[in-house]
Amino acid sequence: MRIQAIRRLQKDEGSTLIEFCLVAFMFIIVLAGVVEMGRMVLVYTTVANAARAGARYAIVHGGDRTGSGVDGPSGPGSPCTCTQITTVVTNFASAGLVDTTRLTVTVGYPNGSNAAGKAVTVTVSYPYDPLIPYFSTILNTTMGSTSEGIITF
């Protein structure tokens, strides 16, 4: 009886190695997917928070704001070129894993003015590029976020 068990074990020598290779490969793919999804959430959060920061800057730096430079108005009484708002969004997004040269920032004033009491909309979009090229066909998408508010002064 003991001899039969030994012979059975000798026949299964290579199957353990094959099974380990298959399981290890699947584990590495799943692990890479988890890392990629985590990075994707981080990039989306960065883009959303950058839009929020840009909208906040636009809200507190309306056309009625007095001052000069960075603390001045975001534009004179009418919709501006919004370079200051774009700079704020770009600076905020640079803290995350975002290539700021590929970031698209759009600032809109639905009422046509950046005076106090008027609305402002900041939209930020970013074409996501996966860290691992294997996932580029699945996760090749554009992430975007819009934040809006009412200009206070």
UniProtKB/TrEMBL annotation:
Pfam families: TadE. InterPro entries: TadE-like_dom. Keywords: Membrane, Transmembrane, Transmembrane helix. This is Pilus assembly protein. Residues 14-56 form the TadE-like domain. The chain crosses the membrane at residues 20-42.
